[in-house]
Amino acid sequence: MSEVLLEASRLTKRFGGLAAVNDVSVRLELGRIHAVIGPNGAGKSTLTNLLSGDLAPSTGSIVLGGADVTGWTPERISRQGLGRSYQKTNIFLPFTVWENVRLAAQSRAPRAASWLRRASSFADTNARAERALELAGLQGRRDAIAGTASHGEQRQLEIAMTLATEPRVLLLDEPLAGMGTAEAERMVGLLQRIKPGHAVLLVEHDMDAVFALADRLTVMVNGQVIASGTPAQVRADANVQSAYLGE
Ligand code: ADP
Ligand code: MG
């Protein structure tokens, strides 16, 4: 097993009578992509929102980078090393690609434990933005106005903006949504590049991408985990085949 960066145990989230997430545990490890799949309404986005602190769990706990972060605000969880992309974009469309990434790098709140980081210079911020731009494969588009970039490039930019805050854990909710084949292939390449330095939770419907990228795979249906394991184990699971993959 690789270094565990996030461990969520027995998370449940109730909305009135509905358990949108029901007793779900996930572990995210450095250098691994953990994919979560399941039909619409399965609870995948709710799970993502619990891990990022955008929603508080009804029960269960989340340990991130060695700290129990259950009930923390999203800002504090982000300072503890978690980054997420939102389906609703944070991109400032009149600015260039580079300016957006640079602003994201600058906006990173200093980590409470590190006085050194608080003193980080313009040069550090530029270097962080430059690294994020390169990882996201957008060096060639740095001077493009964000609003004129293609859908795929805007999704890459969102990820670059998240990377600019230097998270160790990344939560990505359907990063390939709405993409054509070429755009999807570029995004898969991007995710392969960022994998070594990060622990990634990937919610995704595109099964080609999931099976190309995932080291671990969790299948959710109606808020519950019906299977979890390596992609090969999950593919062979009879419950999954009848309940979800439709094979
Ligand atoms: P998925 O991302 O897998 O499609 P969601 O996590 O978005 O699923 O939703 C899971 C279930 O929880 C759905 O039945 C949805 O209607 C419900 N749900 C999600 N968010 C809320 C909310 N804020 N209030 C009430 N019900 C919600
Ligand atoms: Mg969703």
TrEMBL record:
It holds the Pfam family ABC_tran. Keywords: ATP-binding, Cell membrane, Membrane, Nucleotide-binding, Transport. It comes from the Bacteria. CDD domains: ABC_Mj1267_LivG_branched. InterPro entries: AAA+_ATPase, ABC_AA/LPS_Transport, ABC_transporter-like_ATP-bd, BCA_ABC_TP_C, P-loop_NTPase. Residues 6-247 form the ABC transporter domain. GO terms for molecular function: ATP binding. This is ABC transporter ATP-binding protein. The lineage of its organism: Bacteria, Pseudomonadati, Pseudomonadota, Betaproteobacteria, Burkholderiales.
